[in-house]
Amino acid sequence: MTTDCLFCKIVAKNIPSTIIYEDEHVFAFEDIAPQAPVHVLVIPKKHIASLDLVKEEDRETMGVVMERTAHIARMLKVNEKGYRTIINTNGDGGQVVYHIHVHILGGKPIGAMVSR
Ligand code: 5GP
Ligand code: ZN
After folding, report:
1. CB within 6 Å of ligand 1 — which residues?
2. Is 0.85 surpassed by the pTM of this model?
């Protein structure tokens, strides 16, 4: 755990969240400012600051995050109609929280690519 990281604090339950899914490696919770009827963030419990900092040693972790993201989308029943996954990276990518996270957005048509 990185003590000054907001999402590490959420994983540690020092900051409350609406938990959607949790296992040994992965944590998923509702976004505090939802942009769609379903807006969930899926994160590795391991602190990785951004996609830009994913290393060879993180291959398995990130594979699990993506597989669990698909599982959670099925759990939330957005898979058949469809959903969008987003990983924002660094400043121009719109990243605000520097603990890598996959946004799951669904429950309505998400429309064209955001912020073009
Ligand atoms: P980013 O822009 O870094 O990809 O996304 C960060 C996301 O984290 C935003 O959608 C924002 O609403 C969400 N967020 C920020 N602070 C909190 C918090 O304290 N709790 C929860 N559940 N979500 C948060
Ligand atoms: Zn963290």
Report:
1. 6, 15, 17, 29-33, 88, 94-97
2. yes
